[in-house]
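Tokens for chain A. Residues wanted.
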């Protein structure tokens, strides 16, 4: 192998490294948020949650995904919802409502 061919091969590989690194990034962590009420009634909780995320360096949609789940008083749906979140291996489950 000639020296020029070797250098071209190394340079070509180095140029592809950022593409490979980007393709292998882990998926964005997901947080499941469960609220007992309806979405329109929980805006203060959502705002406070987003502010808390921001204070710890997380921005929804940029470095963390957040799935909001509204029970709207139907607490019998809670076991199935929790089972689904656990099956999907969310990074965390958060709630500000009782008796969730």
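Reply:
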């Amino acid at each position: 192998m000639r020296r020029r061919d070797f250098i071209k091969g190394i340079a070509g590989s180095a140029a592809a490294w950022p593409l490979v690194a980007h393709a292998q990034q882990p998926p964005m962590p997901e947080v499941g948020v469960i609220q007992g009420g309806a979405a329109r009634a929980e805006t203060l909780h959502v705002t406070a949650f987003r502010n808390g995320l921001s204070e710890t360096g997380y921005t929804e949609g940029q470095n963390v995904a957040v799935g909001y789940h509204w029970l709207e008083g139907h607490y019998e749906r809670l076991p199935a919802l929790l089972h689904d979140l656990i099956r999907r291996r969310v990074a965390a489950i958060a709630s500000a409502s009782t008796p969730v």
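The first strand starts at residue 30 and ends at 35. The chain has three helices and three strands.
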